[in-house]
Amino acid sequence: MTQQQSATLPASKFASLDELDEDAGNVLGIINYTTGAADPDTSRGHLRLDIHMAHGDSDSFSEVWTTDLPVESGESGGIAYAHDGEHLLCAGRIPPGDGYASGTRAAYARTLELMAELGYHHCARMWNFVNRINEDNADGLEIYRDFCKGRAEAFEAHRFNDSSVPAATGIGSLGGGIAFYVLASRTGALTPLENSKQVSAYHYPEQYGPRPPKFARATHLSVPGLDSASGQIYVSGTSSIRGHETLFAGDVEKQTLLALENVAHLIGPDTLSHHRIDQRSTLADLDTIKVYVRNHDDIPAVRRICEEHFSPDAQVAYLNVDVCRADLSVELEGIVRSANLP
Ligand SMILES: C=C(O[C@@H]1C=C(C(=O)O)C=C[C@H]1O)C(=O)O
């Protein structure tokens, strides 16, 4: 597995459980995609979060965030955090229940308050793992839509307008209510990226829920002190959606190809030059990739298609979980680093 290292951006790499070194220097956080859920913890001096995303040890892995700077950690109002003076990782969990809007609103509100208190005002990326994502809550509202309602209310209460929402993932999990983690920066400039072939998620019509999902298609986070050509692009979970509609329902191979096409356009020259980012990226530049596949039997076909486009050196994890819309079979996310990063 290749390791991403950069002087001033938190590097993330996947590690199998037997490769994991919790005492390695300057660990900002370890996110365990594993066979059970647990509340976020900082007892080892870094953030640790166990998310129930694996059916067994064979598909369990850890995402390790490292930094070149000393790390401080703590907990406040149920949100655990670790930071290095430039970047912050924080995490929370909403326990299983009959509904999630109020719990999400409260947990997100506490997270946004904590970011402000610690001085990390630039929210680059959020990951949300929603158990029973396509099932209904006690009031008959799909749990994903219930989560989106609570998130939108928290963002509004904290004047987080659509132009400052982060890249995100909102994906199913195998248990444990709703878990989330967040990456924010203190001085690195953030540029949200939208895909000209998709309606911005925060503009989705009400047919997808009472409040739209609040996220950007990607965010570019620049290296503090360097020009905008130096940075990382955090690509949100991306699926077979054009405009605001799902395409190729029931055809996982066509959905995989369209999701890849959406990401290629998002990180390609037309989009980046439109946002005045002097980087040129292709799917071969994507790394720390997660591919979420609804039906386990579809994973070999999805993997075959993806491997035709990804670098052989890329870190790729395939996870068998539900996707945010019942007619979506596959979704992918990743990170692009600019070639000129030290
Ligand atoms: C796949 C989509 O949305 C998914 C849900 C997200 C969320 O609610 O945060 C973010 C990206 C995807 O994981 C999409 O709407 O295109």
UniProtKB/TrEMBL annotation:
Pfam families: FkbO_Hyg5-like_N. Residues 63-184 form the Chorismatase FkbO/Hyg5-like N-terminal domain. Substrate binds at residues 144, 151, 204, 217. InterPro entries: Chori_FkbO_Hyg5, FkbO_Hyg5-like_N, RutC-like_sf. The active site is at residue 331. It comes from the Bacteria. This is Chorismatase. It comes from Saccharopolyspora dendranthemae. The lineage of its organism: Bacteria, Bacillati, Actinomycetota, Actinomycetes, Pseudonocardiales.
